Amino acid sequence: MCMLIFSNKATSLPYGLQKKLEIAHALGTTIKLVLLDELAESEKGIPRRVTEENYKGNISSEKRRFTLRFLFFATEEMCYNCCLEDNMCNHPDITRRVCGMKLENLYEILREIHGPQGKWWPGTPEEIIVSAVLTQNTNWKNVEKALENIKEYCKKDILHCLAKMSTEEISFLIKPAGFFNVKAQRLKNLLTWLKSYNFDLEKIKTKSIEEIRDELLSVKGIGKETADSIILYALELPVFVVDAYTKRLLDRLLGIKLKEYDEYRLLFEKTYPRDVALYQEFHGLIVEHAKALCRTNPLCATCPVESCKYKNTKK
C-alpha cells in the first residue's frame, strides 16, 4: 500500500514521476492518492481536510492539476524512491514520516554488528561539559591530553577552577586540543552561563530541554552539536546528537541530504522513543559504524546494512 498526498497549489504532475507511478501500478502496487481540497495545515504541518481517490491507471486531466508534494506513508520501495528522487520530501514533518521508514531497524542492525557501546562519552558531567567544547574540530586523543592538563592543574571541581582562571591560562592548558585561543574564550563564555546557575547542574535540569537548548545556543561559540552533547551526556536529558558521522550515515542510508541540523535530529527523535540511554548508545553505534565501515571511502561490500540507498546504487 502506498499513500500519496497531492497539493492543489501547483498545476501539473511531473512527467518523470507520473511514469514511475504508472510503472508501479503496472507491477501491482496499490496506490492511494490523497488530494487536498484545501491546504489547511495544523500547527504540526499535517493537512486537516483531505479528499481521497484511488489511482486506477493513467492519471486523468483533472488530476494533472496536482503535483506530488508530500509522501505521507509508504511501504513500497518504488514509491519511496519516487518521493526521494523527485525531491518532494521538503516538508519537515512529512520528511520524518517518510525517512523514518529507513530508520526503524537501524539501531538493532548496528547493535548486532558492533555490540553494546557502554559508556561512550567518559568522564564526570563537568568533564563532559568541558570536553564538548574541546572536541570541536579535533580528534578525541587531543581532547584527552587537554583534559588531563586541566584535571592535573585543578585537581577537583574543574568548573569553579576554570572560571577563576584567565583566558590566557586556559589557553595554555588546552593547547593540545588545537584552536586553543578560540576554545579558551568559548569555555569562558560557557562558564559565565554556568555561573549564573552557581554551577548547579541539577538546577539547570529543572528547566525544559527547549529552554536549556536555547540558552546554550545563545552562548557565543556554542553550536547545536555542542549544546546537544552537553544536554545528552552531561545533563542526561533526551536530545539526539547529530555530528558529521551521523549526517554521513543518514545521507547514504536515505539517498538524500537533509538541509538542516534539526531535520536530522528530529528524524531520530520522531522515529525512536525519547530515552537518554537509547540516544547515547545509538550515537555511539553510529560513530563506531562510521569509523569501521561507513568511512569517507565506504566499505559497502562488507557492510550488513542492506537497506542503504548508497550501497544499493553501487551494486
TrEMBL record:
UniProt KW keywords: 4Fe-4S, Glycosidase, Hydrolase, Iron, Iron-sulfur, Metal-binding
Stated EC number for the protein is: 3.2.2.-
GO biological process, alphabetically ordered: base-excision repair
Please provide an example of a Pfam family that matches this protein in its UniProt record. Answer: HhH-GPD
Domain HhH-GPD: start-end pairs: 134-292
Q: What is this protein called?
A: Endonuclease III-like protein
Which molecular function GO terms apply here? 4 iron, 4 sulfur cluster binding; endonuclease activity; hydrolase activity, acting on glycosyl bonds; metal ion binding
Tell me the PANTHER family matching this sequence: A/G-SPECIFIC ADENINE GLYCOSYLASE/ENDONUCLEASE III, DNA REPAIR GLYCOSYLASE MJ1434-RELATED
> From which organism does this entry originate?
Fervidobacterium pennivorans (strain DSM 9078 / Ven5)
